[in-house]
Amino acid sequence: MDEALLAAYRATDYRVRLTRGGWVAIQIDQPLPEELRDLAQGLPWGFITAWHPSSKLAPRPHNRIAQRALLAALRALPETVVVRAGLGASREGPWKEASLWVVGPGMPQLDALAHRFGQSGYVHGEGAAPARLRLTPPG
Questions:
Q1: pLDDT in tens, 79-137
Q2: CB 27 within 8 A of CB 13
Q3: Can you tell me whether residue 11 is helix, strand or coil?
Q4: Residues 138, 55: Cα–Cα separation, whole Å
Q5: 84: helix, coil or strand?
Q6: Which InterPro entries does the entry link to (predicted)?
Q7: What's the pLDDT tens digit per position in 35-68?
Q8: Is the CA virtual torsion 63, 64, 65, 67 positive or negative?
C-alpha cells in the first residue's frame, strides 16, 4: 500500500451511529471511545466497508449492493454480537463512505470479508484497547 493511502486511512474518523442519535468517532491508535465500550464487552470488533473496492471510486449503486451483501455476511457469522451503521469520513477532504462497526468477529473473519469485498484494509480492536489499522493480507 502506498504512503498516500496509509496517510488517508490515518486521517479518517471512523464514525459509529449511537443508539439515541449522534455519532462517535474511532481513531487509529486511540482507545475505543467510552460510548462504545459497553457494546464491545471486551470482545474483538471491526470497522469495515464494502464501498470503493481496491480504494478506487465505484458507482453508488454498486457500493450500496456490496454494502448490503457485507451486512448480510456479518449477520450470518455466529460470532456477531452487534452491528452498527458507520461512516468513514476524511478529516482532510471530502472522502466519505458508508461502513459498519461490528462486535464479535475476530481478525480471521474480518480478513476474509475484507478480501471478499476488495478492501485494502480495515480498523479493528478488542474491547477498549486502541484501534489498529489492519492491511488486508493477500488471498
A1: 999 999 999 999 998 889 999 999 999 999 999 999 999 999 999 999 999 999 999 98
A2: yes
A3: coil
A4: 15
A5: strand
A6: DUF3293
A7: 999 999 999 999 999 999 988 889 999 999 999 9
A8: positive
